Amino acid sequence: MTMVHHSDEASSPDHLQRKLNNRHLQMIAIGGAIGTGLFMGSGKTISLAGPSILVIYMLIGGMFFFLMRALGELLLANLHYKSFVDMAYDLIGPGAGYYIGWTYWLGWVLVGIADLSAVINYLSFWLPEGTSFSPMQQAMISAGCVLFVLGLNLLTVKLFGEVEFWFALIKILAIIGLIGVGGYMILTHFQAPHGQVVSVSNVWSHGGLFPKGVSGFLAGFQIAVFAFIGVELIGTTAAETKDPEKNLPKAINAIPIRIILFYVLALFVVMSVTPWDHIRADKSPFVELFLNAGIPVSAIIMNLVVLSSVMSSMNSGVFSTSRMLFGLSKDGQAPSALGRLSKRAVPSNGLIFSCIFIMGGAVLQYFVPNTMEAFTLASSLCVILFISVWLLIMACYLRYRKLSPELHAKSTFKMPGGVLMAYVVIAFFLFTLVILALEPDTLKALYVSPLWLVVLGVSYYVFYKPRMKKLVQETFD
């Protein structure tokens, strides 16, 4: 297996610095696991799938655990890998590196755009009943959010780690608080304003666990998968993580516990308090739970929490896109300007470049003022792109197992199930793509997504390959 060499000298302004410690990495991983898809998207997912959403989250979460174990083994097998770009470039080829890097970049840009829709949705909580933001107001709010996140990321990577630490901590405490309040309501048989007595039986007494049958169960996958986008984020922090051999396994192995706590248990409590058929698709069920509890102050606090969650997601997205561009640039797959670091060792040009495109979300808010429609469109597109990235990560794992059996034998962090489990994960994600074709909302995104392949293909053969050919000729001349 070829070694991808990038110097780790912290003093060099040309290289990323290892400033993220275990505390930061754990919270980045948690922050990635708790995002807009959970807080905003779960309302729509519950309305589509009912209580079967719990099964969906456990199933997807299990697949992601194996995906992350494969990624962890790959990153630790070769610490010269800074991200998926290096990994795909080395194990599959330059075309794969080019695709995974730019696709991951676009995926997070789309996440940022979806997050802007969520911000508008949450801020609408503060408006008088029956009123909404004008398209221009939505666009201005969106632009302000992007500029705020850009400002945070232009400072230092350690500040990014600190901000994500506190964002993630807020989310954790909020979900624990929600579980606590909901648990109290369950134990005391609290009667909600809609007249329903709070009980765990509410989860299955409104049509069973699969009230909408197989079609409803499958319909819940798109936004549920979107909720997991970001779990793989720690794969982009490898170059800036202290002691990765110790800290990466810790972060990855905690994923199942997080899924059970933050997704399954939290949504079980939500549906115990508010029967699934009373949950509105366009509202956050987390905020609604406190309103149903008759605790408006807590509902206000939770609304602020979900707002911070969206900003956390956008913050992570901007961070990861800039690191992808940095890696692509160093491999000659993006303009060299995007690989330049500021005095603070931050890829500032990449940050600005990414934020310019996320600003497209402000334009979307103007032309598609329906926030849920804009959210669904952006999230559907990015789910398709991310699935292709996850599939390539698994393909990298299979190539690694074939090309470097000695590294696998020496690995102290082997993927459970090995090659067989890798094929199971691949089959699952391919199945998820098929499911997306069943829903009209996501089918639109499937129709549009091949355009990205065309753009990448043209740019690869028109710009990248001639550039590489020229560099090779100059090397041998």
UniProtKB/TrEMBL annotation:
Main subcellular localisation: membrane
Xref: PROSITE patterns: AMINO_ACID_PERMEASE_1
Superkingdom in the source lineage: Bacteria
Gene Ontology cellular component terms for the protein in this record: plasma membrane
Pfam families with a match to the protein in the record: AA_permease
Keyword tags: Amino-acid transport, Cell membrane, Membrane, Transmembrane, Transmembrane helix, Transport
Bilayer topology annotation: Multi-pass membrane protein
Subcellular location: Cell membrane
Gene3D superfamilies, per database record: Amino acid/polyamine transporter I
Membrane-crossing residue ranges in chain numbering: 25-42, 54-76, 97-120, 140-161, 168-187, 214-234, 255-273, 293-314, 350-368, 374-398, 419-438, 444-463
One GO term (biological process): transmembrane transport
Domain Amino acid permease/ SLC12A: 24-469
UniProt name for this protein: D-serine/D-alanine/glycine transporter
